[in-house]
């Protein structure tokens, strides 16, 4: 069994923890981290199925250290050889915050040296270690003198699903888009509209959720090359995921944007993942948006009006969204924006608010639940 760690953006720990729970693992949550225990198959399933986590890592060790000697000795005591093979390549990255050991390059060098000594002894290697094999990215993270040593199982971040061939100026991460859909509790049984679709990410993630398509289905992971993962396990789990997908489930998703170029880009991305005919794309000004069904969900990440001259336009859009949900009380509205006066313009207090970050920009996710 391994101690596993799914990393999470700030404010989304509960969403990631629920996904890990749904895979059948018990979790413990810390700031930006969801900890759980699992075997090799848990590593594979986590990488294939976690929509909202950034990465899946193995925790090799956790201890306090205030001197370089302590860091070296405690790192060397850990069973690195149980994960890293004799030819494994193990670059070390690091970060340190509010700790006595604040020089990150020194911490990285010491951890690297300690692992080298441990592996040479364990694998009976004389001379240099030949790092020509699989990649095991080690991270040393020190916070208030507590050292956390992990190995990344994912490779590229989990937001890299492989379908985004084109994007606009400020694309939203796929993991954040999936989180917005998860927080709306939309499951595909009612219409779904993103009126500010940009490169189509929210609509595509919604379609994947509704059809139960594993987000990691079409990409590779670092741990596929590892000796601790049985050779055919990723393939087995991909076949299983394919059999669990609801490809025939009919869903009603509309993605619109005022910019025809964004609609073109969104269509390319949706076609890449197989949703070219499933999602309805429209070039549309939000003021022309009409709700035809009795109930449904609007989920979006509109322009924030950060630039001078855009503010009035953005305020008018927000007011229009408020009018729409007042006229259609069974519809739910979920909007992420950095605009502080959003509720004033909508003319209604949100049912729930959640602080989130889009990149480095602090935003609020305003959630207005429709009447049941």
Automatic annotation (TrEMBL):
CDD domains: THUMP_AdoMetMT. It comes from the Bacteria. It holds the Pfam family THUMP. GO terms for molecular function: RNA binding; rRNA (guanine-N2-)-methyltransferase activity; rRNA (guanine-N7-)-methyltransferase activity. Keywords: Methyltransferase, RNA-binding, Transferase. Coiled coil: none annotated. The keyword Transferase applies. Residues 42-153 form the THUMP domain. PROSITE patterns: THUMP (PS51165), UPF0020 (PS01261). The keyword rRNA-binding does not apply. PANTHER family: RIBOSOMAL RNA LARGE SUBUNIT METHYLTRANSFERASE K/L, RIBOSOMAL RNA LARGE SUBUNIT METHYLTRANSFERASE K_L. This is Class I SAM-dependent RNA methyltransferase. It comes from Macrococcus carouselicus.
